[in-house]
Design a protein that fits this description.
The structure is a single chain. By secondary structure, the chain is an alpha/beta fold. The protein folds into two domains: 194 residues, 3-Layer(aba) Sandwich (Rossmann fold); 147 residues, Glycogen Phosphorylase B (Rossmann fold), CATH 3.40.50. The protein is built from 16 helices and 13 strands. A seven-stranded parallel sheet has the order 3-2-1-4-5-6-7, with helices on both faces. Strands 10-9-8-11-12-13 form a six-stranded parallel sheet, sandwiched between helices. Helix 6 links the parallel strand 6 and strand 7. The protein binds uridine-5'-diphosphate (UDP).
Amino acid sequence: MARRILTVVGARPQFIKAAAFSRALRAEPGLEERLVHTGQHFDDNMSGVFFRELGVRPPDISLDIHGGGHGQMTGRMLEALEAAMIEDRPDAVLVYGDTNSTLAAALAAAKLHIRLIHIEAGLRSHNRRMPEEVNRVLTDHAADLLLAPTRLAMANLAAEGLADRARLVGDVMYDATLHAIAEARRGSSILQRLGLEGRPFAIATVHRAENTDDPAQLARIVAYLRRAAGQRTVVFPVHPRTALRLAEAGVDTGGLMLTEPLSYFDLHRLVDAAELVMTDSGGLQKEAYFHRTPCITLRDETEWAETIEAGWNRLWTDPGPAPERRDIPDYGAGAAATACVAAIRAFLEPHAAMEAA
Ligand code: UDP
C-alpha cells in the first residue's frame, strides 16, 4: 500500500518547491501526496499564479489563515493543521523552508507523533532576530528526516547534533529553475511588456521584515536602489508587505520601475536577461547564480554562503573585491527532487527501498 504524505505549503517559495517535488513524486507509485494550503500568501500574484503556471494541483485542504502577528498567525495555523492531520492521518507530514506555515505544521505533526520531513533543512543565518531563522531552527529540531540542500547546511545540522537524521539531496530550487528557464524563454513576454528588450537593467526585490518593518532601513534600501538606477533601469516587483510599508513610511521610490509581484516564468525571464540582481530573498540569490547573473544581497548575512565564496554574490555592506567567479557544485544536477523522493521512500519504507535497490 502506498504511503501517504501530507504536504503543508503557504508562501510563494513553497509553491515553487512543492511544484518541483510533486513532479518527481508522481513518478513514484509507493508514495501518495495530499496538499494543504494554509493561506499565508493569498493574493493571486503571490499564490494562484504559481499553482497555474507550475501545474501544482489545487490544494486538497485550504485553511485561509493570514495576517495578524507571528504568534497569532502561527497559533491559528497550529490549531487548524492539528485538526487536518487528525482527520487525514498521513504517514508523514512534509514541510518546506522557514515560514510560519512551516513551523505551525512542524509543531502540529510533532505533537501528534506523525513523522516530519523538512525539505531545505539546515540553513542558518545565525541571526535569531529573523523570524525565518527561528522557524527553521525549531522545525529542524522537531523533524525526523532532514533533507539538506548544501554541504554547509549538512555541517550546520551536524553542529546541532542532527547529523543522523540528515541527508544531502541538493537544491530543489535548482530543479525548479531548470524547468522554468525553457518555459520562460519560450512563453514570457515580460521584456516586451516592460519595454526592456535590448536595454541594460537590474532586478530588485525586498521583503524581509528586517528591511521592511523599520522605516529608516527601508528608506536606506530604497535610496541604494535609486542610486543603482542612475546607471541602468531598476525593475522592482513589490511584495505586498513592502508595498504597505513603503506607503506607510512615505518612502520616495522615484526613478525605480515598480511592478506588481511577477509570475515565476516572468521573474526568471528577467533574471536571465538582467545584468544585476539586488535582493534580500533567499531563493533569488541562488536563481541569480543559476542564470549566472551577479547578485548583491541586501542583508548583513546570508544562508547561501557558497554564492559569496564563489564570487557570484556579495553583501551590500561588503565593498569587495569579490573572489574570482567559479561554479558551485553543491546545488546538484537538477535532480534534487528525485533524491528527496528516494530519501523519503527509504525513510518511510526501509525494506521496500532496499529491495528496489
Ligand atoms: N519570485 C517570483 N516573482 C516575484 C518575486 C519572486 O516568482 O515577483 C520568486 C523567485 O523567483 C523565488 C521565490 O519567488 O523563486 C522567492 O520567494 P521569496 O523571495 O518570497 O522568498 P525567499 O526565497 O526569500 O524565501
